[in-house]
Amino acid sequence: MISFSQVTKHYAGRPVVEGISLSIARGAFVALVGQSGAGKTTLLKAINRLVEIDSGAITIDGEDVTALPLAALRRRTGYVFQGIGLFPHMSVAENIWLVPRLQGVPIDGRAERVARLLELVALPPVLADRYPAQLSGGQAQRVGFARALAAEPSLMLMDEPFGALDPVTRSELGRAYRALHERMGLTSLLVTHDMAEALLLADRIIVLGEGHILADLPPRELLAYRGHANVQAMIDVVRDQTDRLDALGRSDG
Ligand SMILES: Nc1ncnc2c1ncn2[C@@H]1O[C@H](COP(=O)(O)OP(=O)(O)OP(=O)(O)O)[C@@H](O)[C@H]1O
Asked: Which of 6, 59, 160, 253 lies 20 to 30 angstroms, CA to CA, from 127?
């Protein structure tokens, strides 16, 4: 569904993404991980052209993203990011209805469609009339997902969408999104710092570093990976935490 061919992006003369080629199949759930500054966000934003690449090409369903009108491209791609950016002066319903409104969908269907989208992200319908300041962080993030899904995108681009949440909400929302991904037949790309989250949610994990793909494997195979030191270090953190927790559980004092 998405294809990157020799994609390169520089900032201030320094390559951030260098000659990256990869293909992502329809229905895949792919996590992009890597240390801070590895180029994860740059690669994600290049898809919906929030970032313009210097060279190479990115296609969605065989169409070059630079040949698509921006509005059509953004309609196909739901975008969710940390801290979500809900408009504070708009109610939840108005925030969710932003894209359908731009698409000229008649307002008389709004209440029903907003209620359905809230239900999808497991929020009660009464929240429709609240304002963002009256929501918890987890609720706001769910509204962000509902807003992205309102355009009925086939591709979801997510940049640390669970990053600002407490661990319990983070885990709940991650699982809820994974279920939505299945149910709605979405293609999902998730940028995360959290290797454990990537291993538990995604079907395929791409590890970026120094502008390149360091590893590109399904979770089980990545766990057994031996190779690039940076990749191993990220996996070792998860393994070490699991081992220490196991040891703690077994200790008698
Ligand atoms: N608009 C910009 N102008 C200049 N440099 C930028 C710009 N955007 C990103 N960079 C630099 O490019 C590099 C990659 O940034 P990017 O945000 O893609 O990394 P990342 O892997 O998503 O990092 P993080 O995990 O910290 O969000 C960083 O060194 C960053 O400082």
From this structure: 160
Residue having the nearest C-alpha atom to atom 24 of ligand 1: 36
Domain that holds residue 242: 2-250
What are the pLDDT digits (tens) for 164-211?
778 888 888 888 889 989 988 999 999 998 999 999 999 999 999 988
Predicted TM-score (pTM) of this structure: 0.89
Atom number of ligand 1 nearest to Cα 51: 1
What is the count of structural domains for the chain? 1
CB 180 within 8 A of CB 148: no
List pLDDT tens digits, range 132-166. Answer: 999 988 888 889 888 988 888 889 999 988 877 78
Q: CATH code at 45?
A: 3.40.50.300
Which of 36, 51, 52 has most ligand 1 atoms within 8 Å of CB, for mutation?
Answer: 36
Q: Ligand 1 center to residue 112 CA distance, Å? A: 40
Instruction: Indicate if ligand 1 lies below 6 Å from the C-beta of 39.
Output: yes
The interface predicted TM-score (ipTM) is: 0.93
State the average pLDDT over residues 87-101.
90
